[in-house]
Amino acid sequence: xAKVIEGLYYSESHEYVKVEGNIGYIGIxxxxxxxxxxxxxxxxxxxxxxxxxxxxxxxVESVKAASDIISPVSGTIVEVNEALDDEPELLNKDPWENxxxxxxxxxxxxxxxxxxxxxYEAFCENA
Amino acid sequence: MKQTCLxxxxxxxxxxxxxxxxxxxxxxxxxxTPEHMAVREKVGVFDVSxxxxxxxxGKDAERYVQHIFTNDxxxxxxxxxxxxxMCYENGGTVDDLLVYKMGENDFFLVINAANIDxxxxxxxxxxxxxxxxxxxRSDFYGQIAVQGPDAEKTVEQVLGLKCSELVFYTxxxxxxxIVSRTGYTGEDGxxxxxxxxxxxxxxxxxIAAGVQPCGLGCRDTLRxxxxxxxxxxxxxxxxxxxxxGLGIFVKLDKQEFIGxxxxxxxxxxxxxxxxxxxELADKAIPRHGYPVLNMQGETIGEVTTGYHTLSTDKSVxxxxxxxxxxxxxxxxxxxxxxxxxxxxxxxxQFYNKSYKK
Lengths: 127, 357
Prior knowledge:
Mean pLDDT of chain B: 97
Number of strands of chain B: 19
Mean pLDDT of chain A: 95
Low-confidence stretches of chain B: none
Largest sheet of chain A: 6 strands, antiparallel
Largest interface: A-B, 13 and 19 residues
Strand order of the largest sheet of chain B: 10-11-12-9-3-13
Distance between the termini of chain B: 38 Å
Largest sheet of chain B: 6 strands, mixed
Shape of chain B: globular
Oligomer: heterodimer
C-alpha cells in the first residue's frame, strides 16, 4: 500500500483530507493505522455535526489505546462511513479507500496550513 | 530508566518498547492479538525480569512473612506458593505478591516492578524485632514466563528443565534455577528465575524453537480476561483486597498481620466501594479512568481496566463503584468521551482459566 498519496492534504496528527470541489474526505493515514495496530472500534460522529480544524471529532481504538481523530479542516459532516461500525479493521486494510467522514468545507483556505504528500512523508521520517 | 537483561534482544526482534514500572519494556512484537492468541492456543514467552525478588531467611522468617502478608503460610510444605497482599494498617494495599516457600524459614517473595523501592522500604521498616536476613535480589534475577497449553512440553524439551511433576502454585530448584508453575495469563505455564546469563540463554533457545515472544500488551489483555488484578488498577493504597473481591487471600482467622483489624472491620461492615465487572451492549471501549454512572447519570465510580476482549469479542471492564450497585445484573452506564453507553454488572471473569491443578 502507498505510504502517502499525491494530491492529498496531511496534518501533523496523521489525518488526511482528499478534496473534491467543496467536499473533503477525512481519514487517517497509513502511518497512523500502522502505529495504532489492529483497529477494533471507531467512534464515529453524526451527520450534520460541525467539525472544527484542530479539534477532535471521534476516536480510533486499538486493543491497547484510544486515539482521538483530529479534524484537519472545518465544516459540516455530510456523510459518515458507516461500514467502519461493523468492520473497523478496514482502516488497517486500506485507510486511503476507507475515509471516515465526508465534510462540506467551510473555509478552503485552511488547506494551506496542511502538508502536501512530500512534506508529510518527510514529517513521518523524522517522527 | 532501567533495562532488563533481555533488552537488546527485544530491540533486535523489532519490539515496540515503552516505559513500565521504571523499566523500558517490550509492549508488543507481532501485535497484541497474535501474541494473545499464541498464549491461549499454544505457547508464548514473556520477559518479566522487571519483577522484583526479595529473600527472607533465618529463625523468624516464617513469623515475619506471616506479619506482613495477608495469606496464611503456617504449616506450608516446602515447594508451596501463596498469593496474597501486603497491606497498610488501614487496609490499603502496599502490593500484591507471591510467597514461595523454598525451605524451612526460607522464603522467596515476588513483587511488582513499579513497587520495588516502596515494598523494600516497607519490608525493612517492618522487620524490626525479627531475627531474619532480608535481601533485595531484584537486580540479580532475570525472569521469563512460558505460558500456554504447550508450556510444559516447551520447558521440558526446549529448555531441558524437568517440570511435569510440578502442580499449580508449586516450585522447585534445578541447581540455581527456580522453576514454578505460575503465571499471569489464566493459562497453564511456568515462571523461571535465574541469573541474567542463564535467562538470556533460555530466551535465545525459546525464540530459536519458534516460541512466540509476547509483550506486556498481551500480558495485560490475558490477565484482564480472566479477572486477575493489576496493582495500580484494581489494587492500590486506596483499594483494599476486600474492595477488590480478593478476600479469599486475606486470612482473618490468622493470629496477626499488618492491616488485619481494618480489613476485618471492612469485611464485616461491607466496603463502600467494590471492584465489579461491567459488560457494555455496544462495542465502544471503556478505558482506565472513564466515569461509571448510574441510570440517573450520577457518577458512581470509575473504570480500572477495560478492553474489547479478544477471546469473546465483547467490550468489558473492571471498575471500582459504589457497593450498592455491585450486585450482578445491575444496570449502569459508562461515559466514553462525549457519549454514555449502557451496560450491566457481570462476573469479573470474562474468560475461563485453564490451570493445571
